[in-house]
Design goal:
12 helices, alpha/beta
Length: about 300
């Protein structure tokens, strides 16, 4: 198999590894630089940054280091209380307006992809209405991204998550997300899907099947681990734990199979919004271990899995 560097950009979700307060933008920049100074990573995911100078620094330092930027919407949506599938028209419209602000931020930071999430699953009685509300919101956001485009067009990407266990997102099952993507893509080509490996066990989905279902819409991929064996364990669910935790769902073999499937669906060959296809590790600390130790865990696991794939 070819070197991973020739096929993909390897990234990391910065706010998952280094949670930060909006009151400490200088700490965020320091953490960002620790990733940019590591040649292993050629992509980075940032999230909502209220401080304009910090956003300018993101663009300056990522351009200088040659690292691709993606905007991670999950934390931003929770912080800003964005719900794009709300049936409350005022709440949904306010959420779209907040997303328009985030689109401005993405262009400021030269982010090529902004990934978003739906609101909560409110029950089967409201599912179809919620999905229609989300489609309407997503189209408005895609239109805004297209309207504000200059040197490139920002891609809007829906991250799929669990409906019943932890996050309880509306979308949700991969096959339903694909159906939604088909409808939005009929009008806006700057829309796609983000699959997160760590979410699929929580969703009780087969990773191989999910990747094949979503293959024509994938903008980028998240790699990671999760734990679902015991609800009483503090890291149960969507906590993005390091690899190798006892009884967790993703280890070297599972990651190798995931990478093999990415090859089989031509993920590394099909056009993407980024220079190269991006696979990003969304991994955080389990307890009080150092971020450097988590990064070492990620690198060792990935390199071994790539050799096996």
């Amino acid at each position: 198999m070819k070197s991973f560097r020739s096929l993909a950009s390897i990234g990391i979700v910065l706010p998952k590894l280094y949670p930060f307060s909006q009151e400490e933008p200088e700490k965020f920049i320091s953490n960002l630089l620790s990733i940019l100074e590591d040649p292993f990573f050629t992509a980075v995911e940032v999230s909502y940054i209220a401080d304009e100078k910090a956003r300018q620094a993101v663009k300056k330092y990522t351009e200088y280091s040659g690292v691709e930027v993606i905007f991670n919407g999950g934390d931003a949506f929770r912080a800003l209380q964005i719900d794009l599938s709300s049936l409350d028209s005022k709440k949904r419209e306010a959420s779209v307006e907040k997303c328009k602000m985030l689109i401005e931020h993405c262009y400021e930071m030269n982010a090529k992809v902004m990934h978003i999430v739906t609101g909560k699953y409110e029950g089967e009685a409201y599912r179809k209405q919620n999905i229609e509300a989300f489609i309407q919101s997503a189209m408005e956001i895609c239109h805004e991204a297209r309207k504000k485009a200059a040197h490139y067009e920002l891609c809007i990407s829906l991250e799929i998550g669990d409906r019943h266990v932890d996050r309880q997102y509306l979308l949700g099952p991969t096959h339903e997300a694909v159906s939604v993507a088909q409808k939005i893509r009929s009008e806006y080509q700057n829309f796609g899907l983000l699959l997160d490996q760590s979410h699929l066990p929580i969703m009780q989905e087969n990773p191989v099947k999910s990747l094949w279902l979503a293959k024509d819409y994938l903008t980028h991929i998240h790699l990671g681990n999760s734990y679902i064996k015991d609800r009483n364990v503090p890291y149960f669910g969507d906590k993005h734990i390091p690899f190798g935790i006892q009884d967790s769902e993703v280890g070297v073999e599972e990651l190798a199979q995931f990478i093999r499937t990415l090859h089989e669906i031509d993920f590394f060959k099909s056009p993407k919004p980024t220079r190269k296809p991006v696979v990003t590790f969304e991994v955080g600390r389990l307890e009080q271990e150092s971020s450097q130790l988590v990064i070492a865990n990620v690198k060792r696991t990935f390199l071994e899995a790539w050799e096996m794939a």
